Amino acid sequence: MTAVQLCLTMTGVLLGGLLLLGLGLQLGWRRDQARWPHHALFFAVCLGTGLSLALSLAGGLRGLALAPALVLLLTMPRTRPGGAGHWQRALLVAIAYGVGAWASW
């Protein structure tokens, strides 16, 4: 497994955890306890996506497929947490990351 594939896999797992934790927050599960881990996971996913993009760009232009996911992640703070725009953007990020990771693999 190459460094790019390892980074893509680890970031994908973190993204899955972020989505599950966000769903729990949306459903009202321990909002006071789960908010900071959600933000920490968000930061880790942003960092992992950026690192995956940089590593795959170093190996060729295939990494540009991850750029939409990174742009969507970095514009996430502009949506209101808990609102429809927030979870819809999160689903778009997951789709864009999945497609980008598949293309970069």
How would you portray this structure in words?
- The chain is mainly alpha-helical.
- Helices cover 78% and strands 0% of the residues.
- The chain is built from 4 helices and no strands.
- α1 (3-26) runs antiparallel to α2 (31-59), α1 runs antiparallel to α4 (84-104) and α2 (31-59) runs antiparallel to α3 (67-74).
- The longest helix has 29 residues, at 31-59.
- The N and C termini lie close together (10 Å).
- The mean pLDDT is 90.
Task: Assign a percent range to the helix content.
Answer: over 70%
Q: How far apart are the first and last residues' alpha carbons, in Å? A: 10 Å
What would the principal axes of the Cα set say about the shape?
elongated
- Proportion of residues in β-strands: under 5%
N-to-C series of helices and strands: HHHH
* Main sheet overview: none
Poorly predicted tracts of residues: none
Rounded to an integer in angstroms, the radius of gyration calculated over CA atoms is 14 Å
Primary descriptors:
105 residues, mainly alpha, 4 helices, elongated, transmembrane, membrane, transmembrane helix, Prepilin type IV endopeptidase peptidase domain-containing protein
Helices, strands, pairings?
Layout (H helix, E strand, L loop, with lengths): L2 H24 L4 H29 L7 H8 L9 H21 L1
Helix pairs in contact: 1-2, 1-4, 2-3, 3-4
Protein name: Prepilin type IV endopeptidase peptidase domain-containing protein
Keywords: Membrane, Transmembrane, Transmembrane helix
Organism: Deinococcus malanensis
